[in-house]
């Protein structure tokens, strides 16, 4: 499937490895996000039923300069989780950066492979329990062929984390891409095209839609690599919710989670009961499509997927031995900072949502430390006069709010079959 755009893409990522990263920065921070956060994989892909002692073999297809690879490998190392992460990309320049970042962290659970994800079916790699593919499918001449190639190396019972561009939140991008194809044709060298793009951005009038789009910053803070990837990419296909759902289904998959779930729930910001009566009649994809169209701020879609034929499994929220965990939050600090009005205000790219919380939310969250089980939390609350019936009534409400934010999840069991 090599064509002129594909060759230009290869040249782009050799000239400007993406995203721009410096291995020396690893001492200061770990870049964390979705998909491929270990706690999210445990929860959304394996329904918190796959034992933490079982080796996890992951593939990051289109690994770039290493964000997902480094995050997952580091989280596995910190948690003492067995397994490995395989980085796969065509860019030798990106590989050098990713390897430098791994070396800076002294990570030894990463395998580096140069090549195209389209060659995976004949590569001899895999099978993989989990496959990450972020920012790649939308650059392929045939995204479905790419997704099927990923599925070909997916182990039984495994899943994928995908990210693709979404059109509404990228308002303004494609207009300037059109302009730059005229001013800096794709056949020109990447460095020359970047220089033209820099000049154009300084002079585009305030009426340009990208000037009015605050949700995109790659051209402002992402260096030459970010500017090129946003405005000069030779092939860039954005997917609406229905288009992504159709792509996933055509590859024999189903979506286990849209990240973050609350963003795709129109009832979270449409309180009118007459409107809710209408949203109630929509199927899940239509509800998510409505949310996308109404909010207008989604520049990407992130989904976790499993095989459509696999049994539907829910995380064990009703199991007293299950251990709740918070993602990038500390339970006591979160509990202390909750508003007194019984709601949790959250903002997603300017979209403000107030999530209702049950009365026991502070008391429960204060005890979520990654070690206490639901049963242990209930025992502690009972010792302080809270009935187990009240705990059982309030836990679903807390789950509804915090799981929808992709923040309160359930840990992988310590042992099991």
From TrEMBL:
GO MF entries: methyltransferase activity
Gene3D superfamilies: Vaccinia Virus protein VP39
Domain Methyltransferase type: 61-159
Any one Gene Ontology BP term: methylation
UniProt superkingdom: Bacteria
Keywords on record: Methyltransferase, Transferase
Key word Transferase present: yes
Residues annotated as transmembrane: none
Name this protein carries in UniProt: Methyltransferase
Source organism per UniProt: Paracraurococcus ruber
